[in-house]
Amino acid sequence: MSDIPSLVLVIEDDDAMRRFLRASLAAAGYRVAEAETGDAGLKQAPMQPPDIVLLDLGLPDMDGLEVIRNLRTWSQVPIVVVSARGQEKDKVAALDVGADDYLTKPFSVGELLARIRVAMRHAARIAAGGGAEATQFTVADLKVDLAARRIFLADKEVHLTPLEYRLMGILAHHAGKVLTHRFLLEKVWGPPYVEETHYLRVYMANLRRKLEADPARPRYLLTEQGVGYRLADE
Amino acid sequence: MPEQQVNPGEGPLAAPERQGSWHDYAWTALIMALCLGLAKAVSLARLAEPNVVMIFLLGVVYVAVRYGRGPGVVASVAAVLLYDFFLVPPFHTLAVADAQYLLTFGVMLVVALVISTLTSRVRQHAEEARQRERRMEALYRLTRQLAATSGHDQLVVTAQRELSEIFGGDVSIFLPGQDGALQPGAGIGLEDGVAGSEADIAVAPRALDRGKLAGMGAGPLPSAKALYLPLVGPEGPVGVLGIRLPQGTERLLTPDQRQLLEACAGQIGLALQRTALAEQAQWVLVQVEAERVRSSLLSSVSHDLRTPLAVIAGSASSLLESGAAQTTETRRELLQTICDETNRMAILIENVLRMTQLQSGAIAPKKQWQPLEEVVGSALGRLGKALADRPVATRIPPNLPLLHFDGVLVEQVLLNLLDNAAKYAPPSTPVDIFAFIEGDRAVIEVADRGPGLAPGEEKHIFDKFVRGAAGATGGRRGVGLGLAICRAIVEIHGGRIWAENRPGGGARFVFTIPAEGQPPAVDAEAGKVSE
To answer: Which of A85, A86, A222 sits opposite B381 (nearest CB)?
Structure first.
């Protein structure tokens, strides 16, 4: 990260929520820009390009999904959406149109900052690698060598089937980010399989059996119930 | 009820039999010939003249009783003529020697006619009574069958089956659907019930609109293949009955048959309306119950919301107004309180919302085939700190088949059960999660080493607003919704949930999920996209 603090654009209609976000983000060393409506946010973004966008899905003037779609037409800025619990459908929809992550209300400052860090790290990795799989990914004992297509657990190589590796590679490439069922199914099995969630589940179970000490308490391959999966990156 | 095949034309609806068919008259002729022979014998035996007359009258009575009025009249006339021709001198001519025989003939004819008329009328009444009885029997059986049936669809099926048995034809009942358009009822569709020619489809609604018979030979579109009757309940038409008599007996119904059909239609209409009213009453009952639950929810929730809210507001204003005068320690304590109480409120609100959604049927479980292990993992991951230092042991066999359930909802069940264990079991006591297959269901168990359940508590613990008697540790309290939500979720999955004390101390909460059906196959390395 450069010396200039990163700019967070907060698109949120609730005053109290904005105040809380402003205080917490400023305290953590971010610069904060605010917009009360989706429209204002979309106007502001090109003039003062943010490093990350925090977007409330329940805006008064327009659908949050519309804001994401619009932003994605010209920018790859990471977008973290904020929504209420029990609205898994909305989260999935937001992720599918291009959001990077989500926060479920109510959330703590810790969670907020963690999500922002993950999203920015992910964006930085993509920008640095130019999308090429030339790097390797390491978290705790797990090492994914994306170039050599090999996976190590505590320096011992783990053998995966080609599809398992393909799944693992995509997760590692987007480490820290939630990937929806649909996204993973399409990337690994192809478009005709986007509804066959049990394929994904069975392969995730296999991966956990090979990579996790206790598959019922995963350390790396985390489930976001009703949404998708995330490879832990911390 | 014995299964009986009713042949067309022989059911209770069969027309009065063989009236005036030619062999009735042949039999009449035979009987009169017999009478003649007998009378001749009597006459030859030189018995008194009246005996001869009596024999003929006997024949007339028999014919009238057996074959009805027409043959009776023929027999009466024949009796006089035969008597005159064969037994009154001069024989073999209609002429009479003694004029007083004319009087005998006259009286004899009158008596014979009167007798034949009376007896045939008696016979007709008996026949009618028999017909009526059969109709009543059919109607009674239908009524009884309808009364013994509950549920709209079941009623339609029963009515169709019974009517088809009585009339020996295809029967279909049409009911107005959601949009008011007539649709064939459950059981028999247009295709295999009353054959739906275009004309027929158009006729059925007409019967409903006009409140009158329509179709085959009646009213508008008499060319339709079947007959349609409106089913009318006490509060207006409820549907249409279509009936097509079997091929070959496609004649018009007799008035009797039509009457029976209309009576049947009346009974079915009544039964349909009765069911509709009963279902409506049931719905009202459910609404009342829902309203009751809502109000008790409201009173309980408003109390449990106000308490933490008061604490938060108090702590915050204290910090704001006299923050400078407070020690760092006090400020920290107040802030911690605000945090804790807020979390409590968040959980409470989430539970209340979830319960309301479950209760109003707003949540349709989104069932997918998935490994149980995964949902246990995500629940444990989400709970994180709440379990604190309690060691959690999971024992889930790796070969457990995929189960069909809603991941988000079952995760909620596990979260609530684990949260419960964290609330009631003392710190650093172990929590165990077991899962196994037992017959056609998967059994999932969350067990702790806490104080266990008080006697009798296991029965009510899943009711709303019931809190554990043992008392939560560390002042953590719930609103008593967590387990009620668990039960609601398990039940919409078709499973069962219960609680019991664990041997060796502690409580175990067990729930089941049906493990029926074949999990979809996963082809090894299928759908590989080319590199």
So the answer is: A222
Domains and CATH numbers, chain B: 22-144 (no CATH), 153-276 (3.30.450.40), 283-359 (1.10.287.130), 368-514 (3.30.565.10)
Q: What is the pLDDT of residues B52-98, one digit of tens each?
A: 888 888 898 888 888 888 888 888 888 888 888 888 878 888 888 78
Strands B368-370 and B403-405: antiparallel
Pairing, β A221-224 against β A142-145: unpaired
Q: Which of A193, A199, A201 is opposite residue B374, by nearest beta carbon?
A: A201
**Alpha carbon separation from B208 to B57, B229, B433 (Å, rounded):** 56, 8, 61
A195, A203 Cβ separation under 8 angstroms: no
Cα-based distances in Å from A151 to A105, A147, A210, B512: 36, 11, 11, 38
DSSP code, position B435: E
Q: Does B383 touch chain A (CB under 8 A)?
A: no
CA-based nearest residue to A174, from A213, A214, A224, A216: A224
Look up the CATH number of domain A136-231: 1.10.10.10
**Packing angle of the helix pair A181-188, A197-211 (nearest 10 deg):** 80
B411 to chain A, any CB pair closer than 8 A? The answer is yes
Task: Provide the residue ranges of all domains of chain A, joining segments of one domain with +.
Answer: 7-129, 136-231
Residue B432 corresponds to which tokens in the numbers above? 């165990």
φ and ψ of B91, to 5 deg: -70, 160
Question: Do B31 and B75 touch, CB atoms closer than 8 A?
Answer: yes
Each of the 234 residues of chain A gets a pLDDT tens digit; together they read 456 889 999 999 989 899 999 999 999 999 999 999 999 999 999 999 999 999 998 888 888 899 999 999 999 999 999 887 667 888 899 999 999 999 888 888 888 998 999 888 888 877 776 555 457 888 889 998 888 888 999 889 999 999 999 999 999 988 888 999 999 999 999 998 888 899 999 999 999 999 998 888 899 999 998 899 999 987
Backbone angles phi, psi at B182, to 5 degrees: -70, 135
Burial of B200 (0-12, 13-18, 19+ CB in 10 A): buried
- Give the residue from B399, B529, B530 with the most A CB atoms within 10 Å of its CB, the best one to mutate: B529
Which are the contacts of A25, defined by CB distance < 8 A and separation ≥ 6? A8, A10, A32, A112, A116
d(CA B6, CA A233): 78
Cα–Cα distance measured from residue A28 to residue B206, given in angstroms and rounded to the nearest whole number: 76
Q: Has the ipTM of the complex gone over 0.90?
A: no
- CATH number at A7-129: 3.40.50.2300
Contact status of B356 with chain A (Cβ, < 8 Å): no
Nearest of B38, B122, B106 to residue B72 by alpha carbon: B122
CA–CA distance, B249 with B228 (Å, rounded to integer):
17
- CA dist B413 and B497 (Å) reads 10
Distance (Å, whole) CA A69 – CA A63: 10
Residue B8 touches partner A, C-beta closer than 8 Å: no
Query: Is there a shared CATH topology between the A7-129 domain and the A136-231 domain?
Result: no
In chain A, residues with a C-beta closer than 8 Å to the C-beta of B519 are 198
pTM above 0.90, yes or no: no
Sequence-ordered list of residues with C-beta below 8 angstroms from that of B511, at least 6 positions apart, any chain: B413, B443, B444, B486, B490, B495, B496, B497, B498
Residues in CB range of A199: below 8 A, 6 or more apart: A185, A189, A193, B522, B526, B527
The encoded tokens of residue B142 equal 């239908």
Q: What is the spatial order of strands in the sheet that A142-145 belongs to?
A: A136-139, A142-145, A150-153, A156-158
Handedness of CA A53, A54, A58, A60 (dihedral sign): negative
